[in-house]
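User: Modeling request: complex.
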Amino acid sequence: MLSKKTQYAFRALAHLAVYYGKEPVRISEISIQQKIPLKFLENILNELKKADMLESKKGKGGGYVLKVSPKKINLAKVIRVINGPIALLPCVSLNFYEKCIDCDEATCGIRKMMIVARDATLKVLEKKTLNDILFTES
Amino acid sequence: MLSKKTQYAFRALAHLAVYYGKEPVRISEISIQQKIPLKFLENILNELKKADMLESKKGKGGGYVLKVSPKKINLAKVIRVINGPIALLPCVSLNFYEKCIDCDEATCGIRKMMIVARDATLKVLEKKTLNDILFTES
DNA sequence: TTAATATCCTACCAAAACGGTAGGGATAAT
DNA sequence: ATTATCCCTACCGTTTTGGTAGGATATTAA
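Assistant: Request completed. Predicted assembly structure:
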């Protein structure tokens, strides 16, 4: 399951997606509108910035903006930055690989199936973008 | 990510799958062969029994056996019993549903995408069985 | 140059989940 | 009665989660 933090990240990014191309949006603004604890959100947005998805501006008139078009930010990237691996096991993770102990990867059947599951999930998460999670009418 | 406990469960079940139709297998046997801490494994096998996947026999000559054919136990079920929800968010979980706060499910775009992701993952995990994770030669 | 407005940084904290361990009780076979 | 096995309850240290607190730093505007 995704952490609450990741859900907050999605909501915040969806909010910023709506204001893409406009003035920077303050943390406090997003916090209120999306009902996300302010200081926690500060942390989240800062991480997203370090991951190169956001740009920030300090002082009056400051805030956050998406660095690239919402169409170019896919859901897998967001999850990886805030939540970590998408794969079900470390030994099949593309971005957070870790060898498992007492397991021969060449013959491990569990691993084989988890690769198939991973690819099925990634096919969706890497294709869908922030544009796909914007709040829609009806 | 799946917990270590879930990985242990898969290994233990794969072991039992090999001995399906034969004498009961002792916890201690599985513990040694699969390198799983004994007391922890006790706990795991007992949970799988309560979930109706295993049968047990006490006393000499006792142990655990799969209750049904390895072909009939799919990976999704194992994960749900030991690890919990497969979906990425509680509000899209089929077996562990929880409403999310401050979110209108009808219009929430995040939810829509997470349903698609969930279905892609489930299509694999519900189709693959214990038979598919047995250790293979080459 | 000073005040106001933002983000940024470090540190802390409580509660829950994870990954076990300990010790004995119940039951079945010999 | 003894031995072998699963079963049950309770505990426990470490890590992760979901925050909070307080101030440092940068920008703008008066």
